[in-house]
Design brief:
This protein has 221 residues and is α+β, with helices and mostly antiparallel strands. The chain contains 5 helices and 8 strands. The protein is rod-shaped, with a radius of gyration of 28 Å. This is Type I restriction enzyme R protein N-terminal domain-containing protein.
Length: 221
């Protein structure tokens, strides 16, 4: 890695990541990226990315031991954590260590609990980070599928009730020789129902939900 690092520990940490299996292309030094609101720009020491999917996996900040409890460090990590929006990627703080087994100390940043000291042996491998990211996406997609099916079922019941009410009204009117449902009105009702149902059908297709499962109330993914 032919990069100019600002400190020895940054260089050693980047080299360490490579030795434990991180692809060189996944380690981005001092990346500049905008916050979720698109206004402020941030530049952490390291950003771990999936080089194939081009997705952010983790933010890593390197600090000296004397800066560990500084208020500026907390504010900086908090800003990083908020900057990624709903991506919900982990934010790590790494400091030098006198530990004979590992040359670094590891802290996981929690926006509510602050810095949580963690055994550096638990620092995630690259496959672990990508697996966690995939699991979160699958979980989010599964929730979205369930919500879409439930919404469609509620709309279906409402439409069924409205159509039933119209049929009953038409039957009552017919007893008094009043024509309620003409061919044109039935066509108009059909068009309205289609306008309501078609967006659901398109969303189901995008989420990979089978139409039969949606209409039968099967929430399986």
């Amino acid at each position: 890695m032919q990069k100019e690092y600002h400190s020895k520990i940054e260089k050693e940490f980047a080299e360490y990541l490579v030795t434990i299996g991180y692809p060189k292309d996944s380690i981005v030094y001092e990346p500049a990226f905008f916050a979720a609101d698109g206004r402020r720009q941030y530049r952490p020491d390291f950003l771990i990315v999936d080089p194939i999917k081009k997705e952010r996996l983790a933010i890593i900040e390197i600090k000296g031991s004397s800066q560990l409890n500084a208020e500026s460090t907390y504010k900086q990590l908090k800003a990083y954590s908020k900057s990624v929006g709903e991506d919900n990627i982990p934010v790590f703080l790494v400091t030098p260590s006198n530990n004979q087994m590992f040359p670094f100390d590891l802290y996981i940043f929690d926006i509510d609990g602050g810095l949580i000291p963690t055994d550096f042996a638990l620092f995630p491998t690259f496959p672990a980070l990508t697996a966690e990211d995939t699991a979160e996406r699958k979980s989010g997609l599964r929730t979205e599928k369930v919500d879409a099916v439930e919404s469609f079922q509620k709309v279906s019941w409402l439409l069924a009730f409205i159509v039933f009410a119209i049929v009953v009204a038409d039957f009552i009117c017919a007893q008094n020789e009043i024509v309620l449902l003409t061919t044109e009105r039935m066509a108009l009702i059909g068009a309205v129902v289609a306008l309501i149902v078609i967006p659901f059908a398109q969303k189901f297709k995008g989420l990979g939900i089978e139409w039969e499962k949606a209409t039968k109330g099967d929430h399986g993914s």
